[in-house]
């Protein structure tokens, strides 16, 4: 007899996954979240915007990329949710927006309730860290398109910022200082190159390299650091001109997006030490430096451009919040480029 279950879709498993994730999702709740009894939509009380003079909504969407393949191979599912939130919510923080809420989408070959609960639970935990609510999502079972153990995740986030307080290139001027904020690792960009190195060398996920404290696979799955609340704390302290989230394209390409056409960022390579994980991947894969620069964050996950008189306080504030930070470079007259020297 033909049935939906015979076609590979297990509705009961999906319902079980929802039950397992409920308590962790609840931890990300904000006061503005309104319950929708039907569960078809997430509701957020927009009267919260009445305190703003001219509120602008900011939105971002992203995924985790091929890092999910390493999570699948290692059977670790509760960390890539942090990566998803970092990729989405930290993009909102770049313009100075307060993150409000997020939704997620998971596609998988087979719904394994515990696996889905771990994935969504990781997203919810990271939303709580970022100060936003996880108010909805979807899990889709795609038998025949994905293998039973394969999955992908994506998400979208919404934030709010005062129209006259938007950060960005128009605020940046020569003499400003660039502050680097340490990454927790590779974050979520460059994993296609990582997987290529694994496939073409004798490196394996189980490899224990001398300079690393954990097996390579565990190092590679280190969750993305979430900077949203740290960035907002800097904004409240004053003097912030712009941020740059260091994702695909590396440090210089992303920082250039936050520069006006009349200024350059001159960044000092000697101002920080590239973490051993990046050095190991470069050595084993014989990756040219230029390729490393445009593929990985190399230890800098977020950058802030601040007024010169705010630089010392910014570094101290970040350190107090547990984020290693340092003066990475300066803004000079130029043509809108960021350069490592």
UniProtKB/TrEMBL annotation:
It catalyses: 2-formamido-N(1)-(5-O-phospho-beta-D-ribosyl)acetamidine + ATP = 5-amino-1-(5-phospho-beta-D-ribosyl)imidazole + ADP + phosphate + H(+). Keywords: ATP-binding, Cytoplasm, Ligase, Nucleotide-binding, Purine biosynthesis. One of its GO terms (biological process) is adenine biosynthetic process. Residues 173-336 form the PurM-like C-terminal domain. InterPro entries: PurM-like_C_dom (IPR010918), PurM-like_C_sf (IPR036676), PurM-like_N (IPR016188), PurM-like_N_sf (IPR036921), PurM_cligase (IPR004733). Signal peptide: none annotated. This is Phosphoribosylformylglycinamidine cyclo-ligase. It comes from Actinomadura rudentiformis.
